[in-house]
C-alpha cells in the first residue's frame, strides 16, 4: 500500500457509493424540479388558498366597481386569490366584530378606503400581519383599483385613451454586448447573473465539502483504531497525501460533471457561459483552495477524537469560508471595490472571490497571477504546518492537545 493506492481506495469507495450517485445526479434534478414546480404552481395560483376579504368604502365611490371588476376578472377561475364582499356598515360600528373575525381566522383581513382617499390615495389593509407585504391578493386589489382610477380620470378630464396612454409612456432599456454589439436576450441577461454564483457554488461545495469529508474520514478511522493498522504499512505523509488526493479527485469529478452538463445545456439555449479560460482558472483555484482547506481539516481530524469535539474549531473556519457566499451580490455590483480587491488576497477566501471576478470578466492578468501566487504560497505553508501536526497528533489518544504543544510541534 502506498500513496497512490490510498488515493485510489478513497476515490473508488466514495464514487461508487449510492450517496455520491444520489447527491451528484438525483439531488440537483430534485432541487431543480421542486423549484420550478413550486414557481409554476405559485404563478398559476394553485398553491394559494382563496382568501376571504371584506371591503369598507367610506368614499361610497369605488366599492361596487372594485367588487364587479374582481368578479369579472376571476369568472370561471377555480384558483382565484380572494372572495371579496362589500360591507356597507360604518367600520367603527362593526370594527370589534371584524377584528375578532381576523384574529380567529374567519376572514383573512379587510380593506378600508378612508373618506379622504381621493386626496391621499391611501389604501388601508388590516390583517393578522402574516405576509402583509407580499400577499398576492393585496397586489391584485391595488392593481384593480388603479385600473378603475385610470378610467375615472379619463372621463373626468375628458382625455382620450390614446392621450392617456401617451402620458403614461415609460422608457425601457435594451442591453448589448459591447464585443459582439448584439442585443442581449432575456436568457443571456439571466445567465450573466446566475453564472458567477454557479461557479462560486461549485467551488465552495467541491472545496469545503471535500475537506469536511476528509476530516470526518480521519476522525472515524482514529475512533475505530483502523488508522493504526494503516500506519503500520505506510508513512504519515503517504496516508495524508493519499487521502487528500482521493477526496480531491472525487470533488473534481463531481465539478467536471456539472461543468460538462452546464456547457451542453447553455449551448443548447445558445448561451455561452462556460469557456476554456474560465474552466482552467476554476480548476486552478479549486486545486489550491482544496489543498488549503484539506490541510486544515485533516489537521483537525488528527487533533480531535470525535466530530462533536471538532465542531467548535470547524465553525470558525466555516464562518470565514461563507463570507463570499454572503457577499456575492456585492461583488457583482462592485467587483473592483477596495473591500473586494483586498479580500481577493486573503487566502481563506481568495478562490471564491476570484472565481466570481473571473466569471463576470472583472479581473486582470496581474491580479490573477498575484492571487494564485499568494494562494500557492499560503497553501504550501499550511500543508507543511498541517503535516507536522498530523504526524505527531494522529496516534495520540485520551489527551487534549494544547496550543503551546501545537506550536512546539510546528517549530520542531
Strands side by side in the biggest sheet: 2-1-3-4
- Rounded mean pLDDT is 82
Shape, principal axes of CA atoms: elongated
Per DSSP, the total helix count is 17
Quantity of strands, as a count: 4
Secondary-structure element pattern, one letter each? HHEHEHEHEHHHHHHHHHHHH
Whole-number radius of gyration?
31 Å
How many domain regions? Answer: 2
Q: Which residues sit in consecutive blocks of at least 5 with pLDDT less than 50?
A: none
* Proportion of residues in helical segments: 55-70%
Report the sheet-strand fraction: 5-15%
Question: Structural class, judged by helices and strands?
Answer: mainly alpha
How far from one another are the termini? 28 Å
* Major sheet description: 4 strands, mixed
Amino acid at each position: 500500500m502506498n500513496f497512490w493506492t490510498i488515493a485510489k481506495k478513497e476515490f473508488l469507495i466514495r464514487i461508487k457509493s449510492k450517496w455520491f450517485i444520489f447527491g451528484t445526479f438525483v439531488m440537483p434534478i430534485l432541487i431543480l424540479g421542486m423549484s420550478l414546480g413550486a414557481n409554476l404552481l405559485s404563478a398559476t395560483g394553485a398553491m394559494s388558498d382563496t382568501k376571504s376579504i371584506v371591503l369598507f368604502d367610506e368614499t361610497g365611490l369605488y366599492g361596487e366597481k372594485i367588487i364587479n371588476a374582481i368578479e369579472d376578472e376571476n369568472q370561471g377561475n377555480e384558483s382565484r386569490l380572494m372572495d371579496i364582499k362589500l360591507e356597507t356598515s360604518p367600520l367603527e360600528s362593526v370594527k370589534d366584530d371584524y377584528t375578532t373575525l381576523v384574529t380567529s381566522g374567519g376572514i383573512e383581513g379587510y380593506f378600508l378606503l378612508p373618506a379622504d382617499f381621493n386626496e391621499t390615495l391611501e389604501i388601508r389593509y388590516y390583517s393578522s400581519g402574516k405576509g402583509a407585504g407580499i400577499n398576492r391578493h393585496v397586489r391584485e386589489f391595488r392593481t384593480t383599483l388603479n385600473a378603475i382610477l385610470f378610467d375615472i380620470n379619463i372621463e373626468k378630464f375628458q382625455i382620450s385613451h390614446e392621450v392617456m396612454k401617451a402620458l403614461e409612456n415609460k422608457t425601457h432599456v435594451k442591453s448589448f454586448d459591447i464585443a459582439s454589439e448584439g442585443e442581449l436576450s432575456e436568457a443571456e441577461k439571466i445567465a450573466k447573473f446566475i453564472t458567477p454564483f454557479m461557479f462560486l457554488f461549485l467551488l465552495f461545495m467541491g472545496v469545503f465539502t471535500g475537506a469536511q469529508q476528509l476530516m470526518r474520514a480521519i476522525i472515524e478511522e482514529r475512533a475505530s483504531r483502523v488508522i493504526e493498522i494503516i500506519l503500520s504499512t505506510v508513512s504519515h505523509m503517504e496516508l495524508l497525501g493519499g487521502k487528500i488526493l482521493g477526496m480531491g479527485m472525487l470533488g473534481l469529478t463531481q465539478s467536471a460533471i456539472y461543468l460538462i452538463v452546464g456547457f451542453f445545456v447553455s449551448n443548447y439555449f445558445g448561451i455561452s457561459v462556460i469557456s476554456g479560460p474560465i474552466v482552467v482558472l476554476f480548476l486552478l483555484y479549486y486545486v489550491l483552495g482544496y489543498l488549503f482547506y484539506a490541510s486544515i481539516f485533516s489537521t483537525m481530524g488528527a487533533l480531535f477524537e470525535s466530530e462533536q469535539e471538532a465542531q467548535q474549531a470547524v465553525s470558525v473556519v466555516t464562518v470565514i469560508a461563507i463570507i463570499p457566499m454572503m457577499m456575492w451580490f456585492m461583488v457583482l455590483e462592485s467587483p473592483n471595490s477596495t473591500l473586494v480587491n483586498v479580500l481577493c488576497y486573503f487566502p481563506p477566501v481568495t478562490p471564491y472571490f476570484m472565481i466570481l471576478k473571473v466569471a463576470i470578466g472583472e479581473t486582470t492578468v496581474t491580479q490573477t497571477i498575484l492571487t494564485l501566487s499568494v494562494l500557492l504560497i499560503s497553501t504550501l505553508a499550511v500543508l507543511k504546518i498541517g503535516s507536522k501536526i498530523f504526524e505527531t497528533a494522529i496516534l495520540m489518544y485520551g489527551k487534549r492537545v494544547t496550543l503551546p504543544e501545537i506550536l512546539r510541534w510546528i517549530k520542531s
